[in-house]
Amino acid sequence: MSLSGPASTRFVVTTVSMSTEPIAAGVYAKLRLAFIGAVLLLMGTGATSQYCLKRSKDDAVWVAHTYQVLRELQGLSSAVHMAQRDERAYLLTADPKLLVRLHAEWSRIAARMTILGTLTVDNAVQQQRLARLQVLLNECRAAQGRNLRTAGKDRQKAVLEYALSSTREEQRMSKVEDYFFQLREDEDGLLQARSRFWQNSSEIAAVLVGAATILGTLLIVLSGLWIRHDLRRREKAEATLRQFQEELEARVEERTADLSRTTASLESEIADRRKTEERLGESEWRYRMLFDDNPLPMEIFDPETLAFLAVNKAAIELYGYSAQEFQHMTLRDTRPPEELPSLLEFLETVKTAEAYSGTFVTLHKNGNLINIEARVRTIEFGGRKARLKLVTDVTEHKRLETQLRQSQKIEAVGRLAGGIAHDFNNLLTVILGYSDSILRTIDPSDRIGEKVLEIQAAGQRAANLTKQLLAFSRKQILQPQVLELNTLVSNISHMLGRLLGEDVRISLHLDAGLGQIRADPTQLEQVLVNLAVNARDAMLHGGQLVIETRNIELDHPGAVLQGVPPGRYVLLVLSDTGCGMSEEVKARVFEPFFTTKEVGKGTGLGLSMVLGVVQQSGGTVTIYSELGVGTTFRIYLPRLDAPVTQTAEPEAPHHPPAVKGATILLVEDEPSLRALAREVLQESGYVVIEAGNGKEALKVVEDITVQPALLLTDVVMPEMSGLELAEELRRRRPDVAVIYTSGYTDHALLERNTLREDMPFLQKPYMPASLLELVAKVLENKRPEPPGAPQDGGQRQVVEMAGTLS
What we know:
Elements: H1 5-93, H2 96-119, H3 124-153, H4 155-164, H5 166-292, E1 298-301, E2 308-311, H6 313-319, H7 323-326, H8 340-349, E3 355-363, E4 369-381, E5 384-393, H9 395-441, H10 448-472, E6 481-484, H11 485-500, E7 504-510, E8 516-519, H12 521-538, E9 543-554, H13 556-562, E10 567-576, H14 583-588, H15 606-616, E11 620-626, E12 630-638, E13 663-667, H16 671-683, E14 687-691, H17 694-703, E15 710-714, H18 722-732, E16 737-742, H19 746-751, E17 761-763, H20 768-780, E18 798-799
Parallel strand pairs: 7-9, 13-14, 13-15, 15-16, 16-17, 17-18
Antiparallel strand pairs: 1-2, 1-5, 3-4, 4-5, 6-8, 9-10, 10-12, 11-12
Helix pairs in contact: 1-2, 1-3, 1-5, 2-3, 3-4, 3-5, 9-10, 9-16, 10-15, 11-12, 12-15, 17-18
């Protein structure tokens, strides 16, 4: 009878299995015995080594405990020395930051003493030493408290007392150091003993573990030799099994072929399904990339109900609402109430349009307004018609546009102010000159003199207004010098007290170690006066004006915020207790001609002048104000390390005699001003040849036989400037002297590269005495100069009308 198929296979496998079972059972029994023996051996040695390891671990904990005590002692010692150092630094500088740091150090000292008391609770000797150390530290802190209280009243007295008690403090600190030394010495001894115990326990545990490893290895080797004999018997049985297995595999291959054909069909179906899933996944990925993960805010809404159908992450960040909140919102909820009518009207006009765009004002969840630019088109979404809106946040762009327009407006007004001041100075020179000439010719008892004096006073007030215009346009002349701001503030504070009245209290807080600055002292005094007068007008029923100075250093972020380069500055602060300003007033406070005062009580140029002077000096002005609280102006001026320049006492005005026979070529395009200058010079004995422009002047020089000794010319003239005229005239007559005049300032002319610093310059409006003084001085010091030669030294000679700057 032959066996075939599954039944014969089962028979062969069963027979081989029955023949190998006794062999496998013997092998397994021997393996179990070897395993049990090895486990028992390892358990015994492991328990012993575990005991040693536990002792080693306990010793390690004590070692770490001792290290922690030493660290706390070191930190306590450092904190005590830091407290002593901060106390000395505070007494010397009175810096409030050092006082805060001193209190922090004492807090750390108290905390470390508490930790040390807990760590040494099992050591009575150390506890006693800590108690004595605590008493000494309390004495140190009490002494510091007395010094700090004395410093709050009289810092110099506190420094003196601290110096006198330095010996006692050193003795106290020596005792503290002795206690620190004893505590550390005891802890070092404990550390060495505990380290030895820890090392011994670790070595015993390592020896036991090594012995157990060696014995276990020997037992496993012996068990392997014992099992090897049984394995050889098993190999013979496996050879018989392989023979039967080969026959079985042949039959299995036939069945496998059938299964392969079935599997191929299933794999084809699975591949089709996988491709479908990949297409769906790719579609979902594209949707996330194009919509949900798009960096630009995107919205999908229903054109009929205006309800949001979907929003991406960028839109959620823009508006501040969550995705769940958007599911219950419409476009109306993201618009300010006052914008809703115009929005609905606009949507009605584009109801049939496939695409449209526009700029709108929207509302953030926190109430802030957002300017957006939206582009909308019609799409198919979820089987229905919808609108896709792409949003761009243009809030910052709008703000920058507003700032740009404002700066352009101010710049245009500045240029206009400079031009007006130039033309106005010509007229003022004529008014002031002729009024001065009339006053010198009429009888002092004549009542007409009072009217002329009023005319001259009005002209001087107009000159002051011109100065303010030039200050606003940052084109006024400055005479900077290195000075101490504290001295300037102290000197002018007495005048401010009389100016502000008795109901305004002035309080000065001046930093004794204030750095030096480079500025025009006269202009800086005018800045203080303008700010003080504004403060007085804001305190209708009296109040307090606080003037502070201190050093400050601006890092890069702070300097960018203030609009100045990073570096060291001197800060001048003026704070009043007046009515304060609204946000609208603060935004326009530095605009020219802007004022909140009544008509006739202010020109609106005071703060513009302040800003112009400070910016010309390399600094900036910031303002902080609250309604009903007051206003604070902060002026940042660059700090210098140069020595203070001692300002020479002003010399009394003198009028040098005219150089007899001197011929002056007068070139001025303003007829009335030319007539005034000619009259003043002729009355003083000079021979005057006049011309209306540069070309006419050159023609006049060719026609006369007597060559002029001095050229008095306006700088800015049509066709040929005064500088070009002087160069051409000096090519013909190298020894001729030149004086330049202009309604523009020398600073503005230097910026245009039309004037050198060494050239004598007369600023309009000028008084006749100033003109005669400069003419005589230049004629006395006249030196030949080759045309176009560079000037290495010399100070520009600038004469300004006395009293025109208030």
